Amino acid sequence: MTRIKIPPFGSTLARHGLELKRTECKHLQVNVGLSCNQSCAHCHHEAGPDRQELMSRETMETILDFAAANSFDIIDITGGAPELNPNIRFLVENAATISPRVIFRSNLTVDLNGQADGLFKLCAEHKIVVVGSFPSTNQTQFDGLRGVGYFQKALERLRKLNALGYGVSPRLELDLVLNPAGAFFPPSPAGAEKRFKRELNQKWGIQFNTLFTFANTPMGRFRKWLQETNNYDHYMNKLVKGFNPCVVEGVMCRSLLSVGWDGAFYDCDFNLALKIPCAGLPRTVFDSKRPPEEGSPIAMGNHCYACVAGSGFT
User: Fold this and answer.
1) Total-model pTM
2) Percent of the chain with pLDDT over 70
3) For strand 265-266 and strand 256-259, is the pairing parallel, antiparallel, or unpaired?
4) Distance CA 105, CA 45 (A)
5) Which residue pairs, CB below 8 angstroms and at least 24 apart, start in 266-272?
6) Longest dimension (CA), the chain
7) Which residues is 76 bridged to in the sheet?
8) How many Cβ atoms sit within 10 Å of the Cβ of residue 35?
9) Are the C-beta atoms of residues 61 and 106 closer than 8 Å to each other?
10) Would you say 7 and 241 are in contact if contact means Cβ atoms under 8 Å apart?
């Protein structure tokens, strides 16, 4: 692949007559820590068992007060593996009383000697949406990305979620997320969802609602892998050439505010990983009582190409 100079993301937007500014902020994403039972090759946070960053109970309380004061439509709990935060039940229970839609993101493989079962039962009681990362229905591909044995652990968690009613009852939503295992774009969402539903149901009797497919962001472990395998230039070329102006209007950062484990504000979870502060707010939830205003700027970088390539990250 011939090396090209990557145009700044902002310049590409301007060339298409576009700009990236905020609409009404209705989605609060809460990253409760970088501790994880896995060290996935594509992780933009480089989360893993060796990471000690975890959100404190005090920070959770402040975030809940902030959320209650601003009537977010969605509270979105993520990590790392959120299950590993010792205060996660407190956050889940209280978030459910504040927002009409609470999302809990999981890699589907945390067990904690059975304690995770109680956490997901709590999620079911509060009708919390579960979004599980599930990169492939092929065990070899899955374990190659996550580690040996994790495919079976994820299947077991999905079975338990189905037993609770997730993916079966219309009141309990179970969605899956697919990230590619290499330097290529994900398959089309519609076709991949049909295949995943067919294979998971026929082979293992598992049901779910929606499959989301997202391109990997060239940062963290995935960036290191791209560089080590001489795929970085190739992948960035693909992202730039795959720029889709039609999805810019719907990208999540327009209506989302991300808050890190220490209470710091960011425009998205990717900017959190890069420590790029929120463009339109004071630094932390301890310093601000309101989310960014409509029309305020969004901090950008060339990693943003991943969110607007192909079907986009919406």
Assistant:
1) 0.94
2) 98
3) antiparallel
4) 15
5) 266/299, 267/298, 267/299, 268/29, 269/29, 269/31, 269/44, 269/45, 269/78, 270/44, 270/217, 270/219, 270/303, 270/304, 270/306, 270/307, 271/299, 271/301, 272/31, 272/45
6) 54
7) 29, 103
8) 21
9) no
10) no
